[in-house]
Every structure is written in structure tokens, then in C-alpha cells.
Amino acid sequence: MINISEATAIGLHVMIYIANRKGEIVPLKEIAKVFSISENHLSKVLQRLVKSGFLVSVKGPRGGFSIVEGKENSSLMDIYEAVEGKYIRKDCLFSSRHITSCCCIMKPLISSINDTFEEFMKNNSISNLKL
Which of 34, 47, 69, 83 could form a disulfide with 11 if both were Cys (CB 3.0 to 4.6 A apart)? Predict the structure, then answer.
């Protein structure tokens, strides 16, 4: 089943926002204000994206964040995995060693949702989307 944490949702939106401002250094305070997010929580997400090579951090009074050249072509799945970790598909809601995805009564529904999610995340790049 799909697991999108708040940090991942922030990461996806912020990457699109910064990519739309390509070539600019976008201050942390501005991003926090636009998305109504605490600067502390936002900075943790942004540092993951810097560490993963999607953003660069510029220090100082005119500092902020900018997208790394070419990373605007990254898929949403790339960003998801940078923040959330490797995507692991799960086709059953029930977590039990006695019930596997082969015999889960929810498998057809969950599998369909997962297929749609994976297709959307892999086939859409940051540059395709606008906020």
C-alpha cells in the first residue's frame, strides 16, 4: 500500500516550487511561508534533498536553495525515494505472516491503486508539473 509521509509530500511540492524558479536561490523562509510549514521541519526535508543531490544549499544572508542542473527532469518517484527511502510495493493491507499478498481479499483493489500510483510517480517529472 502507498505510504506518503508528510515529509515526502513536502519534498515533492517544494521540489516543484524550486524547479519552477530555476536559476534562483529560494530562501527557506519564503518556502516555509508559501507552504505554511515550520522552518525546522522544512529544513530537515531540504537537507535530505541536498544530500541526495537534487538541491544545492547556499549559505549566508541571501542564501537558500536551488535545484541542481538537470534534476528538474527527475521523476516524482526519484524524489519520493530520496525522502522516504526505497519504494516497496505492498499489495495487502493486512500485515501478517499468515496472510500474504497471494490470498489477500483486498489485493485486486490495492494492486490497482499501486499500479496507478507507480505509473504516475515514474512517468511525471518535476518539470511537467506546476503549482
Answer: 83
- Rounded distance between C-alpha atoms, residue 67 and residue 103, angstroms: 44
* Gap between the Cα atoms of 125 and 67, Å rounded: 13
- Please state, in angstroms and rounded to a whole number, the distance separating the CA atoms of residues 113 and 117: 6
At 98 the pLDDT is 60
3-state secondary structure of 67: strand
Strands 55-58 and 64-67: antiparallel
For the structural domain made of 6-128, what CATH number should be given?
Answer: 1.10.10.10
The residues spanned by each domain of the chain are 6-128
C-alpha cell at 120: 504516475
Q: What tens digit of pLDDT does each residue of 59-84 get? A: 998 999 999 999 999 999 999 999 99
**Residue 101 pLDDT > 60:** no
Q: How far is 47 from 75, CA to CA, in rounded Å?
A: 19
With cut-offs at 50, 70 and 90, classify the pLDDT of residue 108: confident
Question: What is the C-alpha separation between 89 and 116, in angstroms, rounded?
Answer: 12
- Record the pTM: 0.87
